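TL;DR need structure tokens for one chain.
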Amino acid sequence: MISKLPFKIKTNHQYSIGHGSAGLGSQILHCFFDIKDLIEKRRLKYVQTYGLVPKFKAGLHLGTAAVGEVGSIKRDIVFSGDVLNTTSRIEETCRQFAARILASGALLDQIPDLDEFDLQSIGSITLKGKQQKIILFAVERNGVERIGDKKPVYLACVHANVEDVAQDLLKRVADVVKPKKTVITGLSPAVGTHTGPGTIGLAWMAGYE
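>> reply
TL;DR here they are.
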């Protein structure tokens, strides 16, 4: 984008936003996931204070925008251009595909270092209010949500009369994330009645003692 305002988040990555697309790097994607990690670390504080944990989605795109200053008494910096509208439409599309972050192919083509990310093609999509299709990708970090990077990890598996399958699933996940403790239990009759036999659920908590 076109702001000259550099900013930092207290993580392992440094971010800055400058003119043009030259030098675009994976910090654009890291920024989203680092903010998510910071919120997750403060989960207990959010729950205790507000009764919920903030969630957010993001749409990423590349293009040219115009910037101007408006107002006489109170001045504001405003951005305008089709790229802003398109990016907003991309963010709205996240819900349709159950994605936390969607990025355009035009943007990803400018980022050379994508090895740390898993890109799933959504295809060529016609966004709301647009005529020209745009190629979108859902973006995730490689690995199992990086929960193996957070310690300790606790895993729990619930099942409806398929304990052997649940144990196998729990073992396979545990081999990856090395949990401090695992729990396996059957679903209650009330829940099992609605979900049916064969249901399996996996839950985890990481980074909390």
